[in-house]
TrEMBL record:
Alphabetized PANTHER family for the sequence: TRANSFERASE CAF17, MITOCHONDRIAL-RELATED (PTHR22602)
Taxonomic classification: Bacteria, Pseudomonadati, Pseudomonadota, Gammaproteobacteria, Lysobacterales
Top-rank taxon: Bacteria
The keyword Transferase is assigned to this record: no
UniProt organism field: Lysobacter arvi
The entry's keywords: Transit peptide
Protein name in UniProt: Folate-binding protein
Keyword Transit peptide: yes
Length: 282
C-alpha cells in the first residue's frame, strides 16, 4: 500500500500569478524567493510585523510569473484574503486552487528530488518531502486521494519527527522562526532585505539572541498544543504541535536551548526527549 495516494487533510494550495508574482512574494515572505529557479521549491512563511509566524508553507516556483503556496495547516481562504490587502498596485492575482488536492505516499518520488519538483498541472505535481530514513512523496493532484486517517496521522507525526511544526490555530502568531528552529528547514533568510518581521528576525540572528528552540517529546499519553512542559513546579517550555502515529504520542515544544537534563512532564505525565530527524531542509 506504500504506493497508494491518500488524502492529506488540512493542506491547501494558493496560486500567485502575474508579472509581479515573484517580486510580491519576495517582499512578503521570509525566505529568499529570488534563489529559486523554475521547477524548484523551498520552505517559506509569512510573519507578523513583530516577527511571529502566521503560517509555514512550501513555495513552488512554476515559472517567473507563477508561484504556488502549499499550506499544511492555515485556512487558505483567510490567508489569501489577508495577503490580498498588500497587493496594492502589484500585477499579481491571488487564487485558492480548490481544484488541486494534496495527497501523500510513503515511497520515493518517481521524478522529483530534493528541492526540484516534477510533473504538470493536468497529471499532478510531486514533491520530495522525505528523508533517507523516511521516504515520502507529496502530490498535488486533480484527483483526491483516498481517505486514510491512519496514514494521514503517520504523515503528520513524521512531519513532527523532522522538526516541521504543524501549527494549530492556537499557536499562530505566537513564535518567531528561531523559536521554531526553522533554520533546520532553511525556511527563512536574514540577508535578502525587507519583509514583514525581518528586523526582528535579523536582530535575533546577528545579536545571538535566540535562546529557545524546538525539542521533540514523546509520551505514553495524548499531548495537546498549548500545554506547558514542566520540571517539577518549574515551567520549562510549551507544546506547539502534537500528533500520534498509531504507536506513540509526539509533540514539538519550544524550550530553552541551554538547560540541564531533568525529568520532564506535561500535565503530570512523563515525557521523554527524542532526537529530531534530519533530511527535510530544502
Amino acid at each position: 500500500m506504500a504506493d497508494t495516494l491518500f488524502a492529506l487533510p488540512g493542506h491547501a494550495l494558493i496560486a500567485l500569478e502575474g508579472r509581479d508574482a515573484a517580486a510580491f512574494a519576495q517582499a512578503q515572505f521570509m525566505n529568499d524567493v529570488a534563489l529559486l529557479e523554475p521547477g524548484q521549491w523551498q520552505w517559506n512563511g509569512w510573519l507578523t510585523p513583530k516577527g511571529r509566524v502566521i503560517a509555514l508553507l512550501a513555495l513552488l516556483k512554476r515559472s517567473d510569473d507563477m508561484l504556488w503556496l502549499l499550506l499544511p495547516d492555515a485556512d487558505a481562504v483567510a490567508f489569501a484574503a489577508a495577503l490580498q490587502r498588500f497587493v496594492f498596485r502589484s500585477k499579481v492575482r491571488i487564487q485558492v486552487r480548490e481544484d488541486l488536492h494534496a495527497c501523500g505516499r510513503f515511497a520515493a518520488p518517481a521524478n522529483a528530488s530534493g528541492a526540484t519538483f516534477a510533473g504538470g498541472e493536468d497529471t499532478g505535481i510531486e514533491l520530495d518531502i522525505g528523508s533517507p530514513g523516511a521516504l515520502r512523496t507529496l502530490r498535488l493532484s486533480p484527483t483526491p486521494g483516498r481517505q486514510d486517517e491512519a496514514a494521514a496521522a503517520r504523515w503528520h507525526a513524521l512531519d513532527l519527527e523532522h522538526g516541521l511544526p504543524r501549527l494549530p490555530a492556537s499557536q499562530v502568531e505566537q513564535w518567531t522562526p528561531q523559536q521554531l528552529s526553522l533554520d533546520r528547514l532553511r525556511a527563512f533568510s536574514v540577508k535578502k532585505g525587507c519583509y514583514p518581521g525581518q528586523e526582528i528576525v535579523a536582530r535575533t540572528h546577528f545579536l545571538g539572541q535566540a535562546k529557545r528552540g524546538l525539542v521533540l517529546l514523546e509520551s505514553d499519553a495524548a499531548l495537546e498544543a498549548g500545554r506547558d512542559v514542566t520540571a517539577g513546579a518549574v515551567a520549562m517550555g510549551k507544546l506547539v504541535a502534537a500528533g500520534f502515529d498509531g504507536a506513540k504520542h509526539l509533540a514539538l515544544a519550544v524550550m530553552p536551548l541551554e538547560r540541564e537534563a531533568v525529568e520532564l512532564e506535561v500535565d503530570g505525565t512523563p515525557v521523554v526527549e527524542r532526537p529530531i530527524r534530519d533530511g527535510l531542509s530544502r
